[in-house]
Amino acid sequence: MYPRKAENLFVKIPCCWSLLVVWFLIITTQFVKPHELPDQSIMFGINREIGVPEWDVNNLDYCYWPGILCSLNQTVERLDLSRHGLRGNVTLISQLKALKWLDLSNNLFYGSIPAAFGNLSELEFLDLSSNKFGNSIPLELGKLSNLRSLNLSNNMLTGKIPDELEGLVRLQDFQISGNHLNGLIPYWVGNLIDLRVLSAYENKLAGEIPDNLGSVSEIQLLNLHSNQLEGSIPGSIFANRKLQVLILTQNRLSGTIPESVGECKDLSSIRIGNNNLTGNIPKTVGNISSLTYFEADNNNLSGEIVMEFARCSNLTLLNLASNGFTGTIPPEFGGLTNLQELIFSGNTLFGDIPESILRCKNLNKLDLSSNRFNGTIPEEICNMARLQFLLLGENSMRGEIPHGIGKCIKLLELQLGRNYLTGTIPPEVGHLKNLQIALNVSFNHLDGPLPLELGKLDKLVSLDVSNNQLSGTIPQALQGMLSLIEVNFSNNLFTGPIPTFVPFQQSPISSFLGNKGLCGQPLSSPCDGDVSRENYPRKVSYKIVLAVIGSGLAVVVSVTVVVLVFMMRERREKLAKDAGIIEDDSNNRPLVTAGNVFIENLQQAIDFDAVVKATIKDSNKLSSGTFSVVYKATMPSGLVLLVRSLKSMDKTLIHHQSKMIRELERLSRLSHDNLMSPVGFLIYEDVVLLLHENMPNGTLAQLLHHFSRQPEYEADWPRRLSIANGVAEGLAFLHSLAVIHLDISSGNVLLDANFRPLVAEIEISKLLDPSKGTASISAVAGSFGYIPPEYAFTMQVTAPGNVYSYGVILLEILTTRLPVDEAFGEATDLVKWVHGASARGETPEQILDAKLSTVSFAWRKEMLAALKIALLCTDTTPAKRPKMKKVAEMLREIKQS
Ligand SMILES: *[C@@H]1O[C@H](CO)[C@@H](O)[C@H](O)[C@H]1NC(C)=O
Fold first, then answer.
1. Is there a single domain that holds both residue 273 and residue 160?
2. Where is the Protein kinase domain (predicted)?
């Protein structure tokens, strides 16, 4: 029956045969053709949208592409594209139906988060952090009922946290920090039973922390800092006793710290500063055996500092600054041997610094400033050998500064101002070789002379001894303080001349006022029989002018001029002697110990004796920088040289003479159109002189800030742009050789006959490279107004630091303003003044030099583009500044357009 029936069928209906053939063909082609993998077209589509460079599209099997993991049936389960700098449309990913793990973090994706991601029903892990996703969080994500980890941090998300996310019932890890989210923290978050991590800091979240948070979940990490949260800290967050990290800093929280905090033995970090919390610290903190970090500064907490903290033997940091605490420091704190920072400033604590504290061997910061401590400073204070910050200012401390202070060899900052300290400044302060940030003993009752040993503090930036009864002269030895930027000697009993030392002469007059008998610059009172050096040449030329105009008085005036010139010469020679430079005396010739001229056809024309003599004459002085003074030297042959005399700040330089000479010879061969390399050098005594070709157009500073002397066209915009570009090229080249410049300023940019800029003082960077340990100079280098803000903290000269200083020069070029000028008022310097322009409601025209920006539309456009670059360069965050090479590129583009 069967065969016959079939036969009949096939015989009778021929088309059935063809059907079979077609069916057979389909079956076979399925095997012959490379078989299409399930997610293949989707994966190739994704690659077309976002172009992943590592994906090898010649390999059709996407399961082998980097960042991909497939299941056995070759569906994509895991897609990791983090940190690839990718952008483009990611919606297609939502079609990878089997996806469990999706990581797109740290890319450049922008626009809305695709709502279609809500269709990835298998998804357990979703990380979209550190992109530029904007708009609100799509409600559809609430459908991801298998999701355990959701990270949307560091995007530009706005709006509220949608209630639809309530569907994420298995969520353990919920991170949405660093967005612009507002509204409340929804109550459903508290109902997520598996929640371990809630991180929503740096948003605009308001309202109260839900009081169910922590009651069902086993929350371990709660970080909500920098929002606008109100109400009190709910006790529920401690209820499950699982909390390890609590960060609520910078909100508007009020009320008291719940007693139940003591239930959480595993709590290691409590940071609740900058809120409006009140009441006492509960004694139960003593039960938190894991506590390492307790920070509650800037609240309205009160009562005594509970001794129970002493039971937290792991405590590393305790910061209770700026509250209303009173009483004394419990002596039990001496048992906290792990303590590194103890910060109690800005309370009303009194009594002694307990002797027991000296047992805290790991303490590196003791900040008790602005309290009412009225004891003495313990002689053994430096038993805490790791101390870097000893801040005791603004108290009522009595007694003397202990001699033992010299043993705190790691100290970076010593603040003792506004106390009732008596006696002298002990010479042992000179042992504090690492002191960098400040030495402040102002507003005390100290007397006696300044110890010469202060001169050994060659890293110190700020010295304030004002408002005491200190007497005697300001010692010459203080010239050893090579890093000094800020000094204050005012309101003491000092007498005699102010030493000639750049940081002194550059200080405001107020730093020296109110003394018994100080004289000399910067004060206007000249020292006995002396005349102010800077003013003289000007007075002379004024008199010469008078002489020419007033014909009748000619003879009298010429006599005056002769007398004055004679007096001036005498004074200069005295100055030279004071400064340790040997006298220009023909029968006492300087002893040149080494010297060379690298360029053959200059060798005949350069006379070393004439070079040395030129540097002794003040009238030859052209400019003075942080590290060197530049003189003009005319050779007997008629050749004019620039001679850069290194300030004899670094004696070690001399001890490495042969190394230095090698370095100089190498430098002379380092040729770049925009770098000024030496043509020779010579060394006598401990003075190093570097010889350079003459630069007839002076410095960029002179071009910009002595405008009236120049014809207008000399500083027009195209010339300025070309100078800005040249300086950038020079610095970029320097950075490409891993050389960091130590003192970038417009005074260190020289202009040749064609106004080509040459960056000078590169040899200083090479010779005094602090990172190589060849020099003892401070890392805090540079000229006032050009020093990047971070140097004060990092003490490290860096390439981004150079970019900042360059940015200041670019701003000078654009605005024709000085980097530091009283005209900036509150802004204090050019950078802050420019950055604050838009906040002040000012237009670019009020910033740019209008003499140039209003000349033509094209000039204005170019200046605006350059202003943008200058703003980037002077960003406070070093990491955000462009590289020098990039800066040069951007300027080149402006120039070419
Ligand atoms: C030195 O300390 C006093 C008291 O704290 C303070 O007023 C003064 O400004 C400080 N000096 C400097 C230079 O910071």
1. no
2. 616-897
Does 322 share its domain with 428?
A: no
pTM for this structure?
0.61
**Domain end position, chosen among 694, 710, 732:** 694
For 167, phi then psi, to 5°, come to: -70, -10
346 lines ligand 1 (CB under 6 A): no
Q: How confident is the model at residue 572 (pLDDT cuts 50, 70, 90)?
A: very low
Pocket test for ligand 1, best of 369, 394, 413, 440 (most atoms within 8 A of CB): 440
Known catalytic residues?
Answer: 743
Distance CA 424, CA 427 (A): 9
Q: Do residues 792 and 721 both lie within one domain?
A: yes
Average pLDDT, stretch 71-84? 90
CB 326 within 8 A of CB 347: yes
pLDDT at 287 exceeding the cut of 70:
yes
Is position 175 within any domain?
no
Last residue of a domain, one of 512, 528, 544: 528
Q: Among 422, 496, 433, which residue's Cα sits nearest to residue 460?
A: 433
Clarify whether residues 244 and 367 are in a common domain.
no
Task: Report the candidate in 541, 553, 446 with the shortest Cα–Cα distance to residue 493.
Answer: 446
Do 382 and 506 have their domain in common?
A: yes
Residue 22 in any domain: the answer is no
Nearest Cα residue to atom 13 of ligand 1: 464
- Work out how many domains the chain is built from and give that number: 5
Residue 555 confidence (pLDDT) above 70? no
Which residue type, as a one-letter code, is found at position 7? E
| Region of poorest pLDDT, from 35-49, 399-413, 815-829 | 815-829
Nearest CA to ligand 1 atom 3: 417
538 inside domain: no
| Residue 191 within a domain | yes
Ligand 1 within 6 A of CB of 765: no
Q: What is the pLDDT of residue 584?
A: 39
- For the record, the structure tokens of 778 come out as 């401070």
User: CA nearest 165: which of 156, 185, 154?
Assistant: 185
**Residue 44: which residues within 8 A CB-CB, separation 6 or more?**
57, 62
Residue 890 has a pLDDT of 94
CB 315 within 8 A of CB 290: no
- Between 359 and 594, whose confidence is greater? 359
Answer whether 460 contacts ligand 1 (Cβ < 6 A): no
Atom 12 (ligand 1): residue with closest C-alpha? Answer: 464
Q: What's the CATH code of the domain at 62?
A: 3.80.10.10
Is residue 576 classed exposed, middle or buried when 0-12, 13-18 and 19+ CB atoms within 10 A define those classes? middle
854 and 827 inside one domain: yes
Instruction: Give every CB contact of residue 21 below 8 A, 6+ residues apart in sequence.
Output: none
Distance 440 CA to ligand 1 centre (A): 6
Would you say residue 42 has pLDDT above 60?
yes
* Summary mean pLDDT of the chain: 83
Whether residue 236 is found in the same domain as residue 155: no
Residues 6+ apart with CB under 8 A from 337: 313, 359, 360, 361, 362
104 and 193 share a domain? no
Domain that holds residue 864: 696-897
Residue 787 has a pLDDT of 79
d(CA 788, CA 878): 9
Ligand 1 atom closest to 488 (CA): 13
Among 416, 464, 488, 490, say which to mutate for ligand 1: greatest number of ligand atoms within 8 Å of CB.
464
DSSP-derived pairing of the beta strands 317-319 and 341-343: parallel
Residue 841 reports pLDDT greater than 70: yes
Decide if 93 contacts 69 (C-beta within 8 A): no
In this prediction, residue 764 carries a pLDDT of 66
CB 412 within 8 A of CB 437: yes
User: Is 522 a residue whose pLDDT tops 80?
Assistant: yes
Q: In sequence order, what are the residues at sequence separation of 6 or more whose Cβ sits closer than 8 angstroms to the Cβ of residue 827?
A: 833, 836
Count of other CB atoms within 10 angstroms of residue 74: 16
